[in-house]
Amino acid sequence: MAYSGWRIIREALTGNAGWRPVWRDPEPKSEYDIVIIGGGGHGLATAYYLAKEHGARSVAVLEKGYLGGGNVGRNTTIVRANYFLPGNSEFYSHSLKLWEGLEQDLNYNVMHSQRGLINLFHSDGQRDAFARRGNAMINQGDDAVLLDREGVRKHLPYLDFEQGRFPIYGGLYHPRGGTARHDAVAWGYARAADRRGVDLVQNCEVTGIDVEGGRVTGVQTTRGAIKAKKVGIVVAGRSSQVAEMAGLRLPIESHVLQAFVTEGLKPCIDQVVSFGMGHFYISQSDKGGLVFGGDLDFYASYAARGNLPRVEHVMEAAMTLMPMIGQAKVLRSWGGIMDMTPDGSPIIDRTPVEGLYLDAGWCYGGFKAVPGSGFAFAHLIAQDRPHESAARMRLDRFATGRGLMDEEGTGAQHNLH
Questions:
Q1: In what residue span(s) does the Rhodanese domain sit (predicted)?
Q2: Domain annotation covers residue 19
Q3: Would 13 be classed as within a structural domain?
Q4: Contacts of 390 (CB under 8 A, 6+ apart)
Q5: Which domain holds residue 70?
Q6: What is the pTM of this model?
Q7: One domain for residues 168 and 54
Q8: How confident is the model over 10-55, as pLDDT tens digits?
Q9: How many CB atoms are closer than 10 A to CB 410?
């Protein structure tokens, strides 16, 4: 279905009776060339790029619930490319370039808003670290501006600059960073993949992965067995559980990350603001709600809900940074299941099982990575070799210790990321 301003006006005047479903609801076939397990942003993007970039014509996405019902709809919608280490830097730079052309590519409004992102720093040491990060970003071809205290004040006059514990020294400004509408991203990729012949099979839970002679041959599902030449696992916080069906043990722990949204307010926050000392980040949605979050809950869980101590921590950080937020009413909160790797960086790689591929370990960075992840994972599945943007995201780095990408510098432990 094509979209246009005239079509919206026409439907508004005729009771919206002419809209049709934008993707099919097919029955699963008994066999496909490629099966993607997981109908979130990464899985849908992978299927789309398999069809678009590599001409794949026999692809199915299997989702145990409804499309976009997992982490792609449970996040704070931030899009950025302000990473420091080789391996992450070039990947997120590539992903941001895909974001910038995504709406034209999909012919779908994902509400990508490059409103800018400011990471605050609160000491001389942090200033030095962000200066290095900014230089790395510029060398990668991205944008970065180091702001002093007054430079931050011009952009964010409503912050508490005089707080005694974490005085604001300045910030690293990433003008091309911003936000996008998470649901629209999933819907746009789903629509585009369906139009290229991909079967999007909802309410189809994978219960087993068939392996014969060290090679994947298909999957078992709640809607019957499906044969496949290649299978991709891209299920975020459920990665360890699904990989275990093929006899694999992954270096991943699953943790809950909460997010919050307030009542709708008049425009007051133009950019995305990140407060590292409190691990707090906030932006304002197009509907006016303040969308914000903080740290992981720091205990392993598969529950898509959080606990009250973390709620208290996030609210404390919000009040420390911007006391004005105390007047806003929080409407709701939600939790996503984060697949945390020991070094805090993702995995896009083949597994020891021939024909079985893994896209996992996105930690906090899953949403901003959707286009880049789908593009690189599709390339890996189709070509059996990594895309250059994801060449360092190897699974074996955790076994060998070579090539670890500890972006936060907190040590190679799940519970430190």
A1: 34-78
A2: no
A3: no
A4: 91, 348, 372, 373, 376, 377, 380
A5: 26-75+183-252+343-416
A6: 0.95
A7: no
A8: 999 999 998 889 999 999 999 999 999 999 999 999 999 999 999 9
A9: 12
